[in-house]
Structures are given as C-alpha cells and as structure tokens.
Specification:
Structural class: alpha+beta
Number of helices: 3
Shape: globular
Helix content: 10-25%
Strand order of the largest sheet: 2-1-5-6-7-4-3
Strand content: over 45%
Radius of gyration: 14 Å
Length: about 130
C-alpha cells in the first residue's frame, strides 16, 4: 500500500474537486466529479446507494482518483487502488464534505430513504506533479 506524503495530504485538504474513475460492467471507465476527504493519509469520497459508481464498485473494486488545483492545473495528484465501501461514518462524512466544499453545516442534497456510502481508497499507486 502506498502512502501519501504530508504535502500531498495538505493538498487534499483543500476544497479541490476530484474526478473518480470506476469500471463499468463492460470494462469501460466511468468518470464522475466528487468531493474528497483525507484523514491521516486515508483518502475517501462519498456516494449513495443506487448511483452508478456504487453499482460499479459492487462488481469491481478498482478505483482511481485525480485532483487538480483549479488555479494551476499542472499541480495535481492522482492515485489508484481498490475501494472499501461502508456505511460507517458516511452520513457524518457527507456533512464534513459539505462544510469543506460549500461552507454549509449539513449536506442539503439528502433524499428520504437514501443510504450514504463512504468509499475508502486503499492506495496502491500515487502520482503527483507540482506538490512538494
């Protein structure tokens, strides 16, 4: 398992949007924009049951994530590995992510009966550019 450097962890603490890639049943990549969180080098994002990325991860745990600095797109971090999907901490995480990305105390996109999922990435590879 690869580890993020302290500089890479600080980079992910910024409210920079990420693009996560999962694998469709036909083997083609599926990219979506997500909010990302890191805690002590553990990288995760949030989704909900029924969403395409959640369905894809049920079949294939391969995942990749790329984050660009919006003020300098040549400053970026990309990682890949396997996903661990859990409901543990998922509701609290989406609220933390809402604070980070919108400044709101709670996530406003909750739907009745929707289960939130936290997706942890067990990082196998890390590539970065412009992050010291």
């Amino acid at each position: 398992m690869a580890r993020l450097t302290e500089a890479q962890q600080r980079f992910l603490d910024n409210p920079y949007y990420a693009v996560v890639t999962t694998i469709r049943p036909d083997g083609t990549p599926h990219n979506t924009v997500v909010w990302v969180e890191q805690a002590d080098g553990e990288v995760s994002f949030n989704t909900a049951t029924g969403r395409a990325k959640a369905r894809h991860l049920e079949r294939n745990l391969a995942v990749a994530l790329t984050v660009l600095d919006p003020s300098d797109p040549y400053r970026w971090l990309s990682l890949s590995g396997s996903a661990e999907v859990t409901r543990d901490d998922a509701d609290d995480q989406i609220d933390r992510l809402a604070r980070k990305y919108t400044g709101r105390e709670r996530f406003g996109g909750r739907r009745p009966g929707q289960d939130r999922l936290k997706v942890r990435i067990r990082v196998d590879r890390v590539h970065a550019y412009g992050i010291d």
